[in-house]
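Recap from last week: sequence in, structure out.
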Amino acid sequence: MIISDSARADILVRALPYIKAYAGKTVVVKYGGAAMTNENVRQAVAQDIVLMGAVGIRTILVHGGGPEIDAMLRRLGKEPAFVKGLRHTDEETMEVVRMVLCGKVNKDIVALIGREGGKALGLSGVDGSMIRARRHTLSDIGFVGDIVSIDPEPLLAALLAGYVPVIATVGIGEKDDHNYYNINADTAAAAIAVAVGAEKLLLLTDVPGILRDLSDISTLIEALPCADIPGLIADGTVAKGMIPKVECCAKAVDGGVSSAHIIDGRSPHSLILELFTDSGLGTMIH
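Predicted C-alpha cells:
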C-alpha cells in the first residue's frame, strides 16, 4: 500500500500529542512470546524501540527467553520441567538459563536494536547487583527467585547516557548468598517499572489482551481498574497464565506506575500503536 505525503503528515500530526506527553518519560517493555520468535515482529519491535528513543521516550526492555532455554536443555538431553507454572531450575538448568538468557538472547536483542540504528546496552540483574533475590517459597523448584530489591542506578545511568537497557532476568542472592536465581520476566519488569518511576509498563504477550470470552475478540476489556481484578479471577475471566501477568500489572500500578498494558506482541509495531494512537491496543490496567 502506497501512502501519500499528505497522509504521512496527518499521521505525524495525530501522533504529536502523544509524543509530547511521553517525551522525557520512562517506559518499561516486557518482551517475550511470539514477539521474540517471529523475525518480522522482532524487527518491528526493534524499530519501535528506536523510534521511541528518537522522540524522547526513555525505554527499558526486559526480556524472557523460555523457548530458547527449552531448546538448549533438550539439546543437552534434559527435558524442561515446570511446577505450578514455574520452571524447575536445578543447578544444571540454572547454568543453561544464564548462558542462554545473558549470553545469547540478550546480545541478540542488543545487536538487533543496533542494526535498526539504536544504542542498546545488555545487562542482567547480576550487573551492579541490580536484582537481589532469595529462593522462591516453593522449595521443590530449585533456583527460582523472588525479588528482594531492585537497584535502579545502573538503569538510570544507562538511560542518561542515551542507551536502551536490555535486561536479562537473572538475579543474584543477598549478602552471603552467592547463588544465581531465575526470575520471572513479568515480575521483574513490574518491579523495575516501580523502581525507576516509569510512566507505563507494557507487556507484549501472545493474546489480544484480557477477553471475557476467549473465542470472541469483541469481548476485549479495554480498561480495567485494579479493584476489579479479584472479581475477574474469581469468576474465571482471568485464568491460568494470565493471572500472574495481571497481578504484576496491578503491583506496578499500586507502586506508582500510571498504567500497565497487556498487548498483543504478535502484531507488528504494537508498541507505537499503543503509545501514539487514540484507540491503543489490548487491556489497560489502571
